[in-house]
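Annotators were shown the component list below and the corresponding predicted structure, then asked to write short factual statements about the assembly.
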Amino acid sequence: MPALVWTALAGFVVLNVVIGMVTYVTLLERKFAARMQSRIGPYYVGPHGLLQPIADAIKLMLKEDVVPDAADRWVYNLAPIAFLIPCVLIFATIPFAPGLGVADLNIGVLFFLAVSSLEIVGLFMGGWGSNNKYALLSAMRAVNQIISYDLPFVFAALIPVVLAGSLQMSAIVAAQAGLWYVAYPVIGQLAFLAFLVAAVAAENRVPFDILEAESELVAGFRVEYSGMKFALIQFGEYAHMIGTSFLGALLFLGGWLGPGPVWLGALWFLLKAMAIFLVITWVRWSFVRIRVDQILAISWKLLLPFTLVLLLATAFVVAWRGGGVVS
Amino acid sequence: MDTEARQVIELGYGGNERLTMNMGPQHPSAHGVFRAILTLEGETVVAVEAVIGYLHRCHEKLGETLTYVQYPSIASKTDYVAAMTAELAYVAAVEKVGKIEVPRRAQYLRVIAAELQRIASHCLWLGTWCLDMGGALGGGATVFLYCIRERELILDLFEMLTGARLLYGFHQIGGVRYDVPAGWDRKVRETIDFVEKRLDEYEAMLEGNAFFLVRTQGVGVISRALAQDVGVCGPLIRGSGVDYDVRRAEPYSSYQEFDFKIPVETAGDCYARYRVRMAEFRESIKIVRQALGGLPEGPISSRPGVKSVGQVRVAKGDGYARVEGARGEIGAYVVADGGPKPYRLKWRGASFSNLSILPHIIPGHKVADVVAIMGSVDPVFGEVDR
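Structure shown to annotators:
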């Protein structure tokens, strides 16, 4: 069956591209953070530290893999995999250019949102299975936070869907040919802002990184992980973040649309996604972490009603302008 | 402790499952080796037991075995973040016992060193405190690196003055050991001008940040009465509305000749302590400028230079001297028996008395606030355990 082989091959290629991208995005973040902090960042491995991610990966692979005696072995060992799978699976529905993707599902956005919120299962397994008090507290916080922030995240992501009238990613991009949704009057900017805040929270980055919280909970749910399992968790976290950046670029910044020939589309898409990633990184390295009760208050009292009202307003606007035929 | 917090402790969340969690002695926010045994109900701390003593080095016994010439260099190891003022407390106590005069130039140099040390120490405090709240992989690390950058400049000044960057041995009985090297005063002026400008940057970065404000305002409130009952000192008591500073209450080393304000805040929370320290930065810079401008000529010590370790002897008697360190009141009590070594030495560490506030204010707060409150107390465990 050539179609199946083709899909499998595409999946393999995308997986490897994601691995390569995650590896080098860590370098990008470290260089960017170093600039903010008046440092140089990785410099000695390769020219300007370009081989540093490779060195890090090799180091993590060679590290001893420790399983605590008290850990629940099955849960503990499965957790990194359970965490990683949804984080990588979100790339399945993202088209990187017209027709360049694994599967451009007609419910692509829904699939992305559903799968991306599955990461909590892996997180909780890790926190519970480690049998460590810090990890347990972190797992509790994780459940609190991700349940609270997935709703505003979904609502914010649904606004472009309503505007475009389709859940298919390529259709949403096509609908932005005239006007990127971030430029849509009022609704676009507010929705983009809400999307960014919810994305930072859903990805557990500072200032919402209460489940990692190295100054309180040491490293949170992954305090007991070492070596390759730690690398898998770290990899999953970055993959999730990049995936969300791609989604943001696709929903609000017009995906691969841009000047130049069509084949430049993938490059435009990458640049837009990296711009979102760098905004998140910028926020990360300038804020202090906020407390768990404050995080929940922001979500339930502010962000959730805000995005819900915005979604309803968008629906009214679309109905008023005579669009809104959901295909 | 306010009533709401007490209610939480007494009533709980309906469940009675409590978790005992060890924070420290090895912990990213332990500020050295501090162990807090927390009893948690969910995320809320209901009880805290502080365990200290992991850094005990028999400092007071050591003081009895070292001569008056040797010990000042060791005294700096009690509070290694603000070594200058720790040395000064010991030296001042011995001078009190021996009724030894200190030349005016030496007094001014002591003031300059102490105030520069306060700036350096507060830089480290601000950095580590934000690191506690913001994490090593977040905005906290950014503030930390900025602060360390400025602290480096002050340490460069100390290196020019004494040859050392952390533990100086600058003070000696009867004066100071080193005179100002050529060009030092110009360098000091440049540095403090630079640091003063950077302070505005920190304030803009932190006070304009809503997340920083919600993490610090109303957190860890020490009421005026509690502060006085427990006997905290330094920025903690000034943050709770008590206008008390040893430099003003009992001036030493000619502090009465300088014009400076004692910053006082009344809120008593972490933010008030932050404001007090930020104001102290500026006051210290003011004092350094005045002292440099009016630096008198003359000898830097009333005693001849050090030739042997046993050359300083003070008459029989006892004396207690106190100075205002970066963390509060540092005291040294010296009993002399006429020999080259003290018969007995007792330290009063500012961090030790400040740390005793923790069990009073932490219960009722969340786990994340524990590190914020501890950072705002700014303990140095060399001084707590001695």
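Statements collected:
1. Residues 67-320 of chain A form one domain.
2. Residues 2-36 of chain A form the longest helix (35 residues).
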